[in-house]
Amino acid sequence: MDSFSTIHDPAWDSLLEAAWRAWANAYAPYSHFHVGAALLCRDGSVHLGCNVENASYGGTICAERTAICAAAAQGMKPEQALALVVVTEAPTLTPPCGLCRQVIAEFSEDLPILLANRRERALYTLSGLLPHAFTGRNLQ
Ligand code: THU
Predict the structure, then answer these.
(1) Mind listing the pLDDT tens digit for each residue in 89-129?
(2) Minimal CB count within 10 Å: which of 17, 48, 72, 140?
(3) Closest ligand 1 atom, CA of 60?
(4) CA-based nearest residue to 31, from 63, 53, 49
(5) Residue 60 covered by a domain
(6) Ligand 1 in contact with 94 (CB < 6 A)?
(7) CATH number at residue 56
(8) CA-CA distance, 73 to 119, in Å (whole number)?
(9) What CA–CA distances, in Å, run from 29 to 19, 57, 87, 117?
(10) With 80 as the cut, is the pLDDT of residue 2 above it?
(11) Is the minimum distance from the CB of 63 to ligand 1 under 6 angstroms?
């Protein structure tokens, strides 16, 4: 069975650890809602993301998009994203917002996404969270 296809696959462990490290760097002076993300690429590289808020509010960037942009800046191309972890200390798990789902779809339409807090986790796929995504194919 592929790694990351089951919720308790040990392959998640180091990615979870990386996401909590990013979480510690969240810049969220307005919402105080800290989010961490870690994205694994096919070449083994791990890219961290945290939410970065802005006084204009609309300038805020979510942890998931920060991770995607960090990976893209290092050369990630579509189909190279392998797995994403998103962590918060919120009592309920935090799913990626709609805008983040769209940005993730650009790089992997079926990305396994593990959501976690300090006591539970849940496993989704991007296609489950964003069925019938609008992609570059729609522009051809
Ligand atoms: N946020 C994320 O970073 N990721 C999500 O999936 C949901 C929301 C951030 C944006 C903002 O800084 C804070 O959480 C509250 O919305």
Answers:
(1) 999 999 999 999 999 999 999 999 999 999 999 999 999 99
(2) 140
(3) 12
(4) 53
(5) yes
(6) yes
(7) 3.40.140.10
(8) 33
(9) 19, 11, 18, 20
(10) no
(11) yes
Query: 75 exposed, middle or buried (CB, 10 Å; 0-12, 13-18, 19+)?
Result: exposed
Tokens of 80: 């190279």
Question: How many other C-beta atoms are found inside a 10 Å radius of the C-beta of residue 50?
Answer: 23
What is the structure's pLDDT at 1? 55
Would you state the structure tokens that stand for residue 84, as one six-digit string? 């994403």
Rounded mean pLDDT, 27-52: 98
Query: Of the residues 51, 86, 113, which should be mutated to test ligand 1's pocket, given the most ligand atoms within 8 Å of the CB?
Result: 51
**Does residue 138 sit within a domain?**
no
Q: How many CA atoms lie within 13 A of 29 on its CB side?
A: 3
- Give the chain's mean pLDDT: 97
Active-site residue, 64 included: yes
The domain total for the chain is 1
**Bridge partner residues of 113 (DSSP):** 84, 124
Pocket of ligand 1 contains residue 66 by CB under 6 Å = no
**Percent of the chain whose pLDDT exceeds 70:** 99
Structure tokens at 130: 């964003």
